[in-house]
Amino acid sequence: MQQARENVTIPKILTAPMHVLPLWPVSIALSQLARKLLRAHPTILSRIDKYQENLFELDITDLPFILRLHPARAELRAFRRSAAPDADARISGSLAAFLAMLHGVEDGDSLYFSGSLQIEGDTSAVLALRNALDDAELDLSTEIANALPLLAPPLRLALAPLEKLTGLHLQRADTTPEVY
Amino acid sequence: MELVCPAGTPAALRAAVDAGAHCIYCGFADETNARNFPGLNFSRAELAEAVGYAHARGAKVLVAINTFPTAGQEALWHSAVADAERAGADAVILADLGLLAYTAEHHPDLRRHLSVQAAAANPDAINFYASAFDVRRVVLPRVLSVEEIAAINKEIDVETEVFVFGGLCVMAEGRCSLSSYATGRSPNMNGVCSPPEHVDYATEGNESVARLGGFTIHRTPKGGAAPYPTLCKGCFTSGDKTGHVFEDAVSLDASALVPRLAQAGVTALKIEGRQRSKAYVAQIVRAFRAVTDALDEGRAPPALALARLSEGQAATTGAYAKTWR
Fold first, then answer.
1. What residues in A contact B303, CB-CB < 8 Å?
2. Which of B39, B300, B293 has its CA nearest to residue A54?
3. CATH number for the domain running over A12-166
4. B283 contacts A107? CB cut-off 8 A
5. Pfam families, per this entry (chain B) (predicted)?
6. Are B272 and B7 in contact (CB under 8 A)?
7. pLDDT tens digits, A7-24
């Protein structure tokens, strides 16, 4: 039986440099990824529907910054927690929980039931975003490789060892965890 | 035994089919179905494509049109029935008497199932729906014991479908007014139990607080297990007692009762959860397919480990084993 990995957290030694490094290159890279991803998966915006203009805060609790997503502008930007503007809806949880949900390994409601994910603000907007991303069957590693083709070959080689090392779900699950 | 599985999106439908669902039920993205949540459900084109995917792999698709039409706006529900038939749906799941009559008259070849929203819980009611509208299958409310289901099956000629996993509604379904009382919207008319635009989550001190329409439903330790923000699972004070007055925050899991349900004459097992993700759908469907396969082959069903996917992280056999307070 596959182990639940939503409680894995990033070691502080890896996140420490992020406290001092500038965030603007992160915002540029993430927004570029968001633009390509939304272009490749148009049903995401159609499912988000009237909440496209909402500002979503993704508070990845084991990272020293938060992410702000504005779907209509295809913006995904990083902010220091103290400097972040108000958002319409907020989802918080570990990077492991976010990745497991995005890659179809964990169910968002189950993560909420267990306290691994928490939401605040406009619940309708959160549901719309969650359902839109779930239907899109995203694989972040593929999306990154598509956005940055030069990185694709080393990324393919590194994925499995990285998953093993970190315990994170870095790509879409091929198999369904057995529950019996 | 037929396994009837939920799908809130095309991706979830494909996951259900791939995991071994015999049948998948879904709905249109409007007020005609009882899971009308943002970002969920199917467009007409998506439904047609999904039916093609399922049929190509030997699975059936049922379309839930199981809310009660608003007076003067029946056209929305009528067009949903026509569009489900046009998309190639194997049946529609209906609750409203008028819509059943309309469908029987205008779409006689479209198989009709009676939704749990109709709350038909005795042979007289079921036989009426069967004779008046040629309903071929009834989804039984989640308030009956296995013995009561066996007794009903002896007095009716239509198939019965029962819930075996997921959210547990103990109300007279289709008549519950709790959500209407707090928000003005209901699962019966608008397809939403606890409409999300009325749900407010907040962190207060070390507690997570969930409110519906301004009513505090429950307070849980921050980061602790939490249920859905539904009034029936809220923690309230009544007299000198504080607790889950209507229903504990648990999910139904009747996997161990499947052999007895088969003996009781049940045709199909239903999994609740069109609002859940494809990860939930895939895991639950695969688990229950192992149960039905074991049953078909005369083996003991495997024990399932589903608590992690359950509301409240706990499960109950609900009314099937009848241990109400």
1. 180
2. B39
3. 3.30.1050.10
4. yes
5. Peptidase_U32
6. no
7. 677 777 777 777 778 889
